[in-house]
C-alpha cells in the first residue's frame, strides 16, 4: 500500500489544484482537480463537478476524510464507489489507504480518450453528444440556415452535395448536414483531436451507422462495443460476436433511461477489454498492437481516439499536426503522411470494401493545411463551412481554394470588438484590410467587412464571390455569411460594391462613398454658409446586397416543408410566450425564431435599401422627440415614398433610403398622430 504522504505532494501544488464546490460557476477546466471532503460527499461532488472541472488528460485526486466518524470501512466503500464512477468515465486509477490521516483516497488519471461524451442532446431532431467539446444552442439559427441553404443548393444543382466542415467542434453541424440536409458526404475536421470521439459518434449516428445512440453514453461504452463488434465481424469469432451482441443490447438497455441496472454491464466491458487484448494496464491501447490489430479494422470508432502517449497528444492539442507534405486522398481513407498519420483520420464504416460510398470522414488538421491539401488534391466541395472563433481570418481565402465552382462558402467571425465595435482598428485592418470605427451601424458594418473580405479574396483568385445570405447573432456576437463562389471570367468582381461608408456624428447622416470620392466625403448639414463637414469614413467593405433575394425566397419555401423549421428550437429560448427578452438570470439569449429571421432577411432584400441602418434611439435623440411605434414609423416613411425595412441585425433600428432628417420628421408626424389619438380618447372618456 503506497503511503499517501509520498503520493500526495505532486498532486497538491497550490498552483495546480482547484478548490471546488458544486455550486461554483464557470471555473475553467483544470489539469488537476483535488477533492478533499467528507466521505458521503465524495461521490456526489465527483459526479457533479469532475466532468465540468477536469481537463481531458488531467488528474483527479480524491481524499475522503472521515469527518462523520463513520469508520474506515464505510469511508472505504464510498471511495470505492467514487472510483467505480471514475472508471466509468476514465481509465486506470489506483486506490490507496492511509489509516492515519485520511482513511481512503483514490487517485486516477483521466485519459483524454475517455473523456465522457455526456448525455445525448437534440437539436431540431438530430441527436448528438458534446464530449469534451462545447455546444452553443444559441447558434441553432445559423445551423438552421445552413441546412436550408444546402437543401436549396441541392435542388438547384440536382446533385448530391459534399460538405467540408473545417472547424467541427462536437460535430452537431456535420450531423445536421447528413441527417437533415441529406448531403452525400461530410468531412468533419477539428484541429483539436479531443473532439474525435464525439465527432465519430455524431456523424456515425446521423448517417445511420449501427452504433447510433439512444440515451446517455460515453466514449468507453461506444469504443468497447464497437471495437468488439468490428473485430468479431472481421475475424468471424462467434464468442466475441455474441459478447458484442450482448453488450450492444446492454447498451440499449442502459441508455433508454440512463440507469445502469444490469449487473453484468461492468463485467462485459471488462470482458470486451480482455478479448481485445492490447489494452495496457492504464487502459490505453498499446501502440504497436494497435497498428497490428486495429489497423485492419475499418470505420468504427476504435483505436484512433486513443493517443499513443500523453506527450504526443499534448503536442496535437497545442500545435496541431505539423506536416502533410505528401498528403493525398486514398480510396475511402485519408492517407496523410508525417504526424498526421498518427491517428487523425477516420472514415465511415461503409468504406470502399463493401461497395457503399463512405458518408463521413473525421480528421484533426489545422484549417489552412486541410484547405490547402484539398486544393492540392483537386478535392473540391459544394459547401465549405468554417465556424471559426475570434477574428483569425488567415483561412478565409484558403476556404475559397477548397470550394468548387458554383459551390458555397459559409464563413464566420466572432470578434465583434474589432469587426463591429471599431475599437481595434489596427487589428481589423490587419485581419480584413478594412478600417472600422465606432459607428451606430457597427454590427451591419461587421457583416459587410466580412463579406467584403471574401469578395476581394475571391477576386484575387479569379473567383466571383457573392453573398447568398448574411446572418448576425448577438451572442458572441457571431457574424456569418454564406457566399456563392463562381469562376470569374475576366468580368467585374464587384469593385463598385466594395466601397466606403461616411457617417456624420453631428447630424447622424450616413452615406455610401465610392473610392473616387475619397477626400470629398462630406455632410452638408452645417448649412450653405459654412464649409461642408468631413464625415467619419469606414471601409472598404461590401456595400452591395447582403442577401440574394431569389435564394432567400427559396430558403423560405424550403423551410415550409420541414416541421423542425417551425419556430424555436427545442430546449432553446426558454422564455414565456410573447416575451422577447431574456428573463433575468437566464443564460439563453433572446433570439428570433426561424420564420421571423427569414422574413426579416426577405425584407432586407428589397431593392433601394442602403448598406446601413439608423438606430431608432438616434432618430429620437437627434429629433429631441419621444419614442414612437417602430411599425408606425416604417409606415409613415413608406407613405412618404421611401423604401423601408426592419433590420435583422438590430431590433432597435430601421433600414431606409430616407435621410436621417426625413426619419426625424416622420417620427415627429407619428408622435403628433399618437398624441392626437390619445387626446381624442381622453375627450371621449370625459
Ligand atoms: Zn451632418
Give structural notes:
The chain has a domain at 4-110. Mean pLDDT is 70; it is low at 1-32, 65-72, 90-116, 210-237, 250-344, 349-355, 570-579 and 582-590. Helices cover 37% and strands 18% of the residues. β15 (463-473) and β16 (478-487) form a beta hairpin. It has 21 helices and 24 strands. It is α+β, with helices and mostly antiparallel strands. Residues 504, 506-507, 509, 523, 525, 533 line the site of zinc ion. Belongs to the class I-like SAM-binding methyltransferase superfamily. Trm1 family. Residues 245-297, 334-358 are annotated as: Disordered. This is tRNA methyltransferase. Residues 283-294 have a biased composition (Basic and acidic residues).
Task: Name the descriptors.
686 residues, alpha+beta, four-stranded mixed β-sheet, globular, disordered N terminus, binds zinc ion
